[in-house]
Q: What sequence folds into this?
């Protein structure tokens, strides 16, 4: 996360090409290819180049470590459970098998699976509504056709009555 830089896709963030503005917040998710030495090297890099907050999550172990810049130094956060990011105002909660991240309003960010399920449900509701609207349109068209037939029938009947010399005044 970098404040003060334009939005846009970047293959990687090159600080020297970004007015030398360091990332403010960095999130790392460990993968099997990460080594302790490699992660230590990254931490030192972030310390040196001005990152304000650094978070390291291991999804296999469900562990979260964090570092926060205090008095110019990137220091380890002692207790991550319930920690709130000073810059992003998001809160971290380590549940039994997953990391939960809560928005500044306290609501939990949805997981990818939950987001996908909601999107699927919304698409399903939209499709059902589209079908209902189409059925209503067809029903209205059928009603219009029925009314048109009824009008034609009435006009034919009126014409036949007129041929026979029957008028409305004669009926009254």
A:
């Amino acid at each position: 996360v970098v404040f003060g830089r334009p939005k846009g896709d970047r293959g990687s963030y090159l600080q020297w090409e970004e007015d030398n503005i360091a990332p403010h917040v960095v999130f790392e998710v460990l993968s099997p290819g990460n080594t302790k030495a490699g992660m230590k090297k990254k931490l030192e890099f972030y310390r040196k180049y001005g990152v304000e907050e650094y978070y390291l999550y291991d999804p296999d172990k469900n562990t979260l470590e964090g570092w926060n810049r205090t008095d110019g130094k990137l220091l380890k956060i002692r207790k991550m459970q319930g920690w709130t990011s000073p810059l992003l105002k998001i809160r971290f909660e380590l549940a039994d098998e997953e990391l939960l991240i809560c928005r500044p309003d306290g609501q939990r960010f949805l997981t990818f699976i939950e987001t996908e399920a909601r999107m699927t449900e919304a698409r399903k509701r939209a499709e059902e509504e589209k079908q209902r609207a189409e059925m209503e349109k067809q029903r209205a068209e059928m009603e219009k056709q029925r009314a048109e037939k009824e009008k034609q029938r009435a006009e034919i009947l009126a014409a036949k009555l007129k041929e026979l010399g029957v008028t409305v005044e004669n009926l009254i």
Observations:
- The CA atoms of residues 107 and 157 lie 69 Å apart.
- The chain has a mean pLDDT of 92.
- The helical segments are 36-49, 112-163, 168-171.
